[in-house]
Design a protein that fits this description.
Blueprint (H helix, E strand, L loop, with lengths): L3 E6 L9 H8 L5 H9 L3 E3 L15 E6 L16 E4 L3 E6 L16 H8 L23 E7 L2 H12 L4 E9 L6 E5 L2 E3 L7 E3 L7 E9 L3 E8 L6 H8 L24 E9 L6 E5 L4 H12 L1
Parallel strand pairs: 6-13
Antiparallel strand pairs: 1-3, 2-3, 4-5, 5-6, 7-12, 7-13, 8-11, 9-10, 11-12, 13-14
Helix pairs in contact: 1-2
């Protein structure tokens, strides 16, 4: 394993973070102590300049860091089938299956979506570094559905800009516990890292604004089938917001902690629809990811009750 020059561009999600915290959030496979040493040794630059660990990140900052040999494993292309919903010269929209990690991280350096993309695509955008080629946004390991991948840096900047101004239409389908008082509504509650468990997110007044619009599609005996539209895109946003409302997602063992007599294979959450402007033409592109079989089976069981 050779030495690596890593780099990424700060998105709105990381704006306001300390430098050391921002890097640890982005590169969660690198320990906080290792990041602190890299900054101290001058191996980290913000817009080309060495700064302190407490430096506050701004959207658009260019972060670069040098990792000596053996700090990271080689990420290799793998012949893993991809369900491609849309593709042109600039972007792909992938229908990610349940259980697939989007990019390599600690404990998952193979079998990821990135490994599959490296095999499928000759070129991918490099803005987010060697561990996340082409990746401009993410969905959880156990969330299925549509994900945009960028083939070049120009397309990456364009899609990232659309995400920043919230012009990309992202709609999710979920089965949640309980019934809603209103058939549709909006959750506007800030989200930040959970202060007691950094692997989780939580509603936090000091966090970043997070807005989720929901609409009830069907009601069952103990559950509701809902569509959630993201106005912002915070980590675990829908899972945190639904739990805060008292309607955790069925199968979500992290935020839900409720047991049901239905096999769910993780949280019942699917990125159903995505609409964006083509980086090449500016024309609106809309892609729907079919509801996966496991999800349809759950719905049929709930309807039969």
């Amino acid at each position: 394993m050779e030495s690596r020059d890593l780099s990424f561009t700060v998105s709105d999600e990381y704006r306001g973070y300390r430098l050391d915290k921002g890097i640890s959030e982005f590169y969660d496979e690198i320990s906080r102590s290792r990041i602190a040493k890299l900054i101290k040794d001058g191996e980290v630059r913000v817009n080309g300049e060495a700064v302190k660990p407490s430096h506050t990140l701004e959207t658009g900052d260019e972060i670069s860091l040098f990792l000596p040999e053996s700090e990271l494993p080689d990420i290799l292309p793998e012949d893993i089938p991809l369900d491609i919903l849309y593709e042109d010269e600039d972007v792909l929209v992938i229908n990610k299956p349940k259980g697939m990690v989007v990019h390599p991280a600690a404990g998952h350096y193979s079998g990821t979506l990135v490994n599959a993309l490296m095999y499928h695509c000759r070129d991918l955008s490099g803005i987010n570094g060697v561990l996340r080629p082409g990746i401009v946004h993410r969905i959880d390991r156990d969330t299925t559905g549509s994900l945009i991948v960028c083939k070049n840096d120009k397309a990456h900047r364009n899609i990232a800009g659309q995400l920043e101004v919230h012009s990309i239409d992202r709609r999710y389908r979920a089965v949640v516990w309980g019934h809603f008082d209103a058939e549709e509504g909006t959750v506007d509650l800030p989200i930040g890292r959970d202060r007691k468990d950094r692997k989780k997110m939580a509603v936090d007044p000091a966090g970043k604004r997070a807005v989720t619009h929901y609409r009830v599609l069907e009601s069952f005996k103990d559950f509701s089938y809902v569509e959630c539209t993201l106005e912002t895109g915070r980590t675990h946003q829908i899972r945190v917001h639904m739990t805060r409302m008292g309607h955790p997602i069925l199968g979500d063992e992290v935020y839900g902690a409720r047991k049901a007599r239905i096999k769910t294979y993780g949280q019942t959450l699917h990125a159903y629809f995505i609409g964006f402007d083509s980086p090449a033409t500016g024309r609106r592109t809309e892609v729907t990811a079919p509801i996966p079989a496991y999800f349809e089976e759950i719905l049929e069981k709930l309807r039969s009750r």
